[in-house]
What does this fold into?
Amino acid sequence: NAGVTQTPKFQVLKTGQSMTLQCAQDMNHNSMYWYRQDPGMGLRLIYYSASEGTTDKGEVPNGYNVSRLNKREFSLRLESAAPSQTSVYFCASSPNDRGNTEAFFGQGTRLTVV
Amino acid sequence: DAKTTQPNSMESNEEEPVHLPCNHSTISGTDYIHWYRQLPSQGPEYVIHGLTSNVNNRMASLAIAEDRKSSTLILHRATLRDAAVYYCILRRAGGGADGLTFGKGTHLIIQP
It folds into this structure.
């Protein structure tokens, strides 16, 4: 039972490079989320997808794009990485985006932009 | 957006109960109160949630004030493995972009 799987676990990019963070869940969940966590801070929502075929901006969407490829997969793309995007990125999923459901998180991707 | 306020840190002794407070004075009638915790170098983990009544599960208990403006997460017998950052968040019944919005949480330190 894998739950939420994120790849890669670690990545170092040079400023201006692009990359895609992958997230997949095997729980047949409708809703998926991308967060970033900076040192000593809580999680900030970047984008979320309430259901397959929909995506919406969260608190800090600038510099990112997302794709809900299918029900299982939700990817986060950095088109031109900047040092300010150095962070730990977490993907999460939940049965739906309603308030009485719990969310499940991946183990995170630690990204460093130099 | 509904917000929560938690102490930055708390300290407790192993094998003693821990009461983690959370204030949410602007909570709406349809907001669920959720608690998550994050162990070092891991993703957040669901602990418990409730709407109006107190809730118990194998991990913890959630006590919700009658006016719902505050809640308390209770760990009945803390162990060293409970040392983590605990987040109290509000999740709207109807969903939306501010669902699962995390603040800085409470850093719980457990002394042996």
